[in-house]
Amino acid sequence: MNPIIAPSILAADFANLQREVEMINQTNADYIHVDIMDGVFVPNISMGIPVTEAIHKHAKKPLDVHLMIMHPENYLKQFKDAGAAYLTVHYEACPHLHRTVEEIKALGCKAGVALNPHSPVYLLKDILKEVDMVCLMSVNPGFGGQKFIENTFKKVKSLKKLIVETGSNAKIEIDGGVSMDNAKALFDAGADVLVAGNFVFSSQNPAETIKNLKNIV
């Protein structure tokens, strides 16, 4: 089985967003990854509900919306209505994580939970059966183009073991610093979904880059 590829629109040319989305539509990417940042939970501000709506208007791929924000529970319905198929919230931003995951599922979206690089995977043991995806941050969240954190390989293996032990069906998503240098090793370690931003959009041929990532095995 090939990895699921989710190009991160954060790295796209925002002056030509429709063109960039339509380019992804023509590739064999699986999702479009949409990074939402509030300048509080992470030290950057990216985009919000109106831009998500604009992306969805032109997208033919499901939107994988990653909420790097405080109090994500206050905005779940708005992002669902804006076109999110997946809604991923951060463990570190959700004091009532189980409730938030249940609210996402009640809206009809797939529920994801993200972990920052310093957060161990065992923190999710009691909720793994409830979630559809776990996003392991392989860089510190907030900015694109950062160097991949090598400890991620160990976390992927530990998370895969925990998923098997708990009988969960959750996919493992890797977000940050993904390239041809580490994609196969991540997939071999147990990852299912690879998010790639700068590596795709700064390449000479983004469609070919997506194809190469999709066919790394």
TrEMBL record:
<keyword id="KW-0119">Carbohydrate metabolism</keyword>
<dbReference type="GO" id="GO:0004750">
    <property type="term" value="F:D-ribulose-phosphate 3-epimerase activity"/>
</dbReference>
<dbReference type="InterPro" id="IPR011060">
    <property type="entry name" value="RibuloseP-bd_barrel"/>
</dbReference>
<feature type="binding site">
    <location>
        <position position="8"/>
    </location>
    <ligand>
        <name>substrate</name>
    </ligand>
</feature>
<feature type="binding site">
    <location>
        <begin position="142"/>
        <end position="145"/>
    </location>
    <ligand>
        <name>substrate</name>
    </ligand>
</feature>
<dbReference type="InterPro" id="IPR000056">
    <property type="entry name" value="Ribul_P_3_epim-like"/>
</dbReference>
<feature type="binding site">
    <location>
        <position position="35"/>
    </location>
    <ligand>
        <name>a divalent metal cation</name>
    </ligand>
</feature>
<dbReference type="InterPro" id="IPR026019">
    <property type="entry name" value="Ribul_P_3_epim"/>
</dbReference>
<feature type="binding site">
    <location>
        <position position="66"/>
    </location>
    <ligand>
        <name>substrate</name>
    </ligand>
</feature>
<dbReference type="Pfam" id="PF00834">
    <property type="entry name" value="Ribul_P_3_epim"/>
</dbReference>
<comment type="function">
    <text>Catalyzes the reversible epimerization of D-ribulose 5-phosphate to D-xylulose 5-phosphate.</text>
</comment>
<feature type="binding site">
    <location>
        <begin position="175"/>
        <end position="177"/>
    </location>
    <ligand>
        <name>substrate</name>
    </ligand>
</feature>
<comment type="similarity">
    <text>Belongs to the ribulose-phosphate 3-epimerase family.</text>
</comment>
<feature type="binding site">
    <location>
        <position position="66"/>
    </location>
    <ligand>
        <name>a divalent metal cation</name>
    </ligand>
</feature>
<comment type="pathway">
    <text>Carbohydrate degradation.</text>
</comment>
<keyword id="KW-0479">Metal-binding</keyword>
<feature type="binding site">
    <location>
        <position position="33"/>
    </location>
    <ligand>
        <name>a divalent metal cation</name>
    </ligand>
</feature>
<protein>
    <recommendedName>
        <fullName>Ribulose-phosphate 3-epimerase</fullName>
        <ecNumber>5.1.3.1</ecNumber>
    </recommendedName>
</protein>
<feature type="binding site">
    <location>
        <position position="175"/>
    </location>
    <ligand>
        <name>a divalent metal cation</name>
    </ligand>
</feature>
<feature type="active site" description="Proton donor">
    <location>
        <position position="175"/>
    </location>
</feature>
<dbReference type="InterPro" id="IPR013785">
    <property type="entry name" value="Aldolase_TIM"/>
</dbReference>
<feature type="active site" description="Proton acceptor">
    <location>
        <position position="35"/>
    </location>
</feature>
<keyword id="KW-0413">Isomerase</keyword>
